[in-house]
């Protein structure tokens, strides 16, 4: 059954955390598994399926579910399917299925053209008053990324231990980049430091040893589009 293969794979990943896999990669596999189980319940009224029953129709239906019910964009959908495909290929390599149904899956990740914010747009974002605390939080996380140059995954992993006072007396962020594994030393600018201070008593920061109470990447992207609309910034400029 598919759940058994998924669970066994994820358990092996947990044993190899920080050796071969990152926590974010493990979360992606667990999220994909969770989405597929919910898809089975939604579409077929079941919670598991024999791996031999998975065909291109099942795959395309899962793709459609992610885009419509889960509201995933194209690239998120394709990345979930790529992870799912890795599980299917495990079954193929073990001889549990005779052919790979993903050979018929044709969707691709699309290149996203991003343009930078103008100084005026950045100032608008910085001084905008939002009607809800969640939009304010997402704005603050985005600004923190802007003033540190850190990607979402790197901001998500930050703890108080990443903040160090340098020999110049100024505060710095010391962090190994997730994607490149290269060490970074980033000066903590006043705006970024003020954002840290704003949330240092947040329950997520206190209970989970996080520098900032960051939301999931999917929620961040969705709320950033809403923020772009509120601020009159073109959506193509929102991450």
From TrEMBL:
Gene3D superfamilies: 1.10.150.130, Intergrase catalytic core. It comes from the Bacteria. It holds the Pfam family Phage_int_SAM_5. Residues 2-105 form the Phage integrase SAM-like domain. Keywords: DNA recombination, DNA-binding. The keyword DNA-binding applies. GO terms for biological process: DNA integration; DNA recombination. This is Site-specific integrase. It comes from Flavobacterium columnare.
């Amino acid at each position: 059954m598919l759940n058994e293969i998924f669970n066994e794979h994820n358990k092996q990943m947990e044993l190899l955390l920080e050796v071969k896999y990152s926590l974010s990669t493990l979360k992606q596999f667990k999220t994909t598994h969770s989405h597929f189980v919910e898809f089975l319940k939604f579409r077929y009224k079941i919670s598991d399926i024999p791996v031999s029953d998975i065909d291109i129709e099942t795959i395309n239906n899962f793709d459609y579910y992610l885009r419509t019910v889960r509201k995933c964009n194209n690239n998120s959908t394709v990345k979930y399917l790529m992870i799912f495909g890795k599980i299917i290929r495990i079954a193929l390599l073990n001889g549990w299925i005779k052919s790979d149904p993903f050979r018929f899956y044709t969707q691709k990740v699309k290149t996203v053209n991003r343009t930078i914010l103008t100084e005026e747009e950045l100032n608008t974002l910085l001084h905008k008053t939002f009607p809800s605390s969640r939009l304010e939080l997402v704005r603050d996380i985005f600004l923190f990324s802007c003033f540190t140059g850190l990607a979402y995954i790197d901001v998500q992993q930050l703890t108080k231990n990443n903040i160090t006072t340098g020999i110049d007396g100024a505060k710095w962020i010391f962090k190994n980049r997730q994607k490149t594994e290269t060490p970074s030393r980033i000066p903590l600018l006043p705006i970024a430091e003020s954002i840290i201070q704003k949330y240092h008593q947040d329950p997520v920061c206190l209970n989970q040893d996080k520098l900032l109470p960051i939301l999931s990447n999917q929620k961040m992207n969705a709320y950033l589009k809403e923020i772009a609309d509120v601020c009159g910034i073109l959506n193509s400029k929102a991450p």
